[in-house]
Amino acid sequence: MPDGTTFKRCSCRTDTGALLGRSCPRLRRPDGSWSRHHGRWYYQLELPAHLDGRRRGPLRRGGFDTRTDAEAELGRARDLLGLTDDPAAAAQLADTLTREVKESGRLPDVELLRRRIRTGQDLSEKITIADWLERWLPAKKTLRASTRHSYAGHIRLYLIPQLGHLLLDRLRVADVAAMFDTIDE
């Protein structure tokens, strides 16, 4: 897994209006150390290639006040990429990572993706309890007709109205307990 790098850059411009970026002379002090008051910290991390072998662009994030902040998020990104060794899952993970950063401006939760990988869920899909239950019952091929009918009733009357809106990987014990409390009432 790639290590990634952190770097500092600023938004100063030349006389012609071009960004100086990393080459701004004010980013470093005369002794060569980084200026504490000029520029922002960024990180870059190479992502796994697409399944067809094409190189994928790196994950770049920035705007951090300190190098420590940039390195902490770089570490979280590394943790996310380390969740699987399977090339197909790694490519899907990279797609998810890129999409989440683009949409929300932050990295997805490590534990959330770990659960999705462990349970064999599609990482790019946000499946709700209702979606999962609608797929689960038809997939049960060995159920007797009376059992199938009973399950369908429980799903329709209790599970979907109470829990259907929740994301499958966000279901908590408290949600199920609240459903039973509502049924008891």
How would you describe the overall organization of this protein?
The protein is of the alpha+beta class and 185 residues long. 45% of the residues lie in helices and 13% in strands. It has helices at residues 67-81, 87-104, 110-118, 129-139, 145-163, 173-184, and strands at 5-13, 19-21, 40-45, 59-64. Strands 2-1-3-4 form a 4-stranded antiparallel sheet. The longest helix has 19 residues, at 145-163. The mean pLDDT is 88.
The termini sit apart by 53 Å
Summed up, the helix count is: 6
The radius of gyration is: 24 Å
The amount of beta strand, in percent, is 5-15%
Tell me which oligomeric state these chains represent: single chain
Average pLDDT confidence is: 88
Strand order across the largest sheet: 2-1-3-4
Which runs of at least 5 residues are low in confidence (pLDDT < 50)? none
Task: Give the arrangement of secondary structure elements.
Blueprint: E1 5-13, E2 19-21, E3 40-45, E4 59-64, H1 67-81, H2 87-104, H3 110-118, H4 129-139, H5 145-163, H6 173-184
Antiparallel strand pairs: 1-2, 1-3, 3-4
Helix pairs in contact: 4-5, 5-6
Question: What's the short story on this structure?
Answer:
The chain is α+β, with helices and mostly antiparallel strands and 185 residues long. It contains 6 helices and 4 strands; from the N terminus they run ββββαααααα. The protein has a 4-stranded antiparallel β-sheet.
